[in-house]
């Protein structure tokens, strides 16, 4: 079948880990010749080319280039959930391939859990992924950019005859396996700020969030791909929301464990946490726009995820395992420094608007 799976954002934390984990898989579906990686820079392209896979240096904002470059049937989009143009151009390309080759095409979009926080306007109370999630997102699309992108993806895919899926990761942790960037953002930034401040800070509210280890997250994408290639029918389009919620995390509990682990390394002066004096102080220390501080470190959701379980997804990491191995997060930051991620830059760009 040739090279038929494109992963965008392949130099990023998630996209890079998907490439690496697919190549390391025992499945015959994930051979080098079946995977194409899309990256932004020439340096990234050179780095990933060492893996022996097809690499495209691609400007996803240029629809003409995207449509002319892609001769694929499956796209896993990890590049951005804020700029809907990137996803729509890829879907247009898949729609053209479907028309030309007469084969089904598939688009797996990576969204963001912040679209489902009360603090961004999502309705309070329990939300099931088997319920009217799309209808609610459509009603609320104009109030939050990630929701707007989700809706645009689903509607444009339907119009182009492309089968779509929305994967929504929560707080992702663990050292990635990609060639370019092996660090996520939320926990590493917290670790870096704690080391810099010599103390671990927390917000006054003890928020429950959801977490997933990067290896469990890539396994979920792999499960969707395998179902596609096996021609099995799974929820898609308006019903195709896959919340990658492996387990709960209680922020104060996480930060208490982090403080103890940092103190054991003499990287902070106290094993006890302190309260952030203000959102502005937190934003300055964490290095993000102030309007995104609460979204990244002090918001939670109330989602019941059933679609992932129906796939047979069984995360290997639990809350206890994460807390017992929280020193791994510190070690990764000490080893790698800051994440090579464009997320923070995109947040500052979004803040301007």
Describe it.
There is one protein chain. This protein is of the alpha/beta class. It has two domains: 5-171 and 213-243, NAD(P)-binding Rossmann-like Domain (Rossmann fold), CATH 3.40.50.720; 184-209 and 249-300 and 319-348, no CATH class. 44% of the residues lie in helices and 14% in strands. It has 15 helices and 14 strands. The chain has helices at residues 13-24, 42-49, 63-69, 84-101, 133-139, 145-160, 186-197, 214-229, 251-264, 279-286, 290-297, 307-310, 319-324, 327-336, 343-352; strands spanning 5-7, 35-39, 54-57, 74-77, 106-110, 127-128, 163-168, 171-173, 201-202, 208-213, 241-243, 247-250, 274-275, 303-304. Strands 3-2-1-4-5-7-11 form a seven-stranded parallel sheet, sandwiched between helices. A three-stranded mixed sheet has the order 8-10-12. α4 links the parallel β4 (74-77) and β5 (106-110). α4 runs parallel beside α6 (145-160) and α10 crosses α11. The model has no long low-confidence stretch (mean pLDDT 94). This is NmrA-like domain-containing protein. Residues 3-79 form the NmrA-like domain. InterPro entries: NAD(P)-bd_dom_sf (IPR036291), NAD(P)-dependent_oxidoreduct (IPR051783), NmrA-like (IPR008030). It comes from Cudoniella acicularis. GO terms for molecular function: aldehyde dehydrogenase (NAD+) activity.
């Amino acid at each position: 079948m040739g090279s038929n799976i494109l992963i965008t954002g392949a130099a990023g934390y998630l996209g890079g880990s998907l490439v690496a984990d697919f190549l390391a898989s025992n499945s015959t579906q994930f051979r080098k010749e079946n995977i194409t990686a899309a990256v932004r820079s020439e340096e990234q392209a050179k780095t990933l080319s060492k893996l022996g896979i097809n690499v495209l240096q691609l400007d996803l904002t240029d629809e003409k280039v995207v449509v002319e470059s892609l001769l694929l049937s499956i796209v896993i989009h990890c590049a951005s959930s804020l700029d809907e143009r990137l996803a729509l151009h890829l879907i247009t390309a898949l729609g053209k391939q479907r028309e030309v080759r007469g084969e089904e095409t598939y688009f797996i979009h990576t969204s963001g859990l912040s679209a489902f926080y009360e603090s961004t306007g999502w309705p309070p109370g329990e939300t099931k992924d088997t319920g009217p999630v799309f209808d609610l997102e459509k009603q609320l699309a104009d109030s939050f950019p990630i929701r707007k992108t989700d809706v645009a993806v689903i509607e444009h895919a339907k119009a182009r005859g492309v089968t779509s899926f929305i994967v929504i990761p929560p707080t992702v942790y663990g050292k990635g396996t990609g060639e370019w960037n092996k660090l996520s953002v939320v926990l590493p930034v917290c670790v870096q700020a704690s080391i810099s401040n010599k103390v671990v800070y927390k917000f006054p509210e003890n928020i429950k969030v959801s977490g997933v280890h990067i290896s469990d997250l890539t396994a979920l994408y792999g499960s969707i791909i395998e179902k596609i290639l096996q021609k099995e029918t799974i929820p898609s389009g308006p019903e195709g929301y896959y919340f990658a919620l492996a387990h709960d995390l209680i922020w104060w509990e996480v930060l208490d464990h982090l403080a103890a682990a940092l103190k054991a390394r003499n990287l902070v002066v106290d094993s006890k946490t302190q309260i952030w004096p203000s959102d502005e102080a937190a934003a300055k220390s964490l290095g993000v726009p102030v309007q995104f501080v609460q979204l990244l470190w002090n918001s939670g959701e109330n989602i019941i995820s059933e679609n992932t379980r129906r796939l047979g997804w069984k995360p290997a990491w639990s809350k206890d395992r994460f807390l017992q191995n929280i020193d791994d997060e510190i070690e990764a930051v000490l080893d790698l420094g800051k994440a090579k991620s464009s997320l923070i830059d995109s947040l500052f760009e979004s803040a301007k608007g």
